[in-house]
Amino acid sequence: MAIPANNRPPGLDPPRLDPPRRIAAHLLLTAAGERVRRPLVEFASDGRIRSVAQWRDADREPFTVFYAGLLVPDFPTDYRAAFAAVAADRTTPLDRLLPRTPQGVTVLLTGIDYERLLLTDRTTIRRVMP
Predict the structure, then answer these.
(1) pLDDT of residue 46
(2) pTM for the full predicted model
């Protein structure tokens, strides 16, 4: 039997350890409807949230991507259709308006009214985590 150059028998290579995915944003709307300013969210490889902290200098955090907007975890998997269903409502605050589902996806809303937490005609949605 030939021994590989790394002196390990075949099939015994160490598991690949990917760094955690970290996303910083202006706001996070938790499943409980709480607003977190300057969230630094760490995700597991399957998209679940591992931790939430507040950032000071997001651009200096390792393995971190910054998105300008509102992060919303547990959004329905068919996020475009779910967003289209509520997009015309400009009077209900997002913490009461947005649909949520366990094990959904994390989306980013941009172009919202951050002070009153309302949708505007410029609001867009983007999926950022599975």
Answers:
(1) 84
(2) 0.80
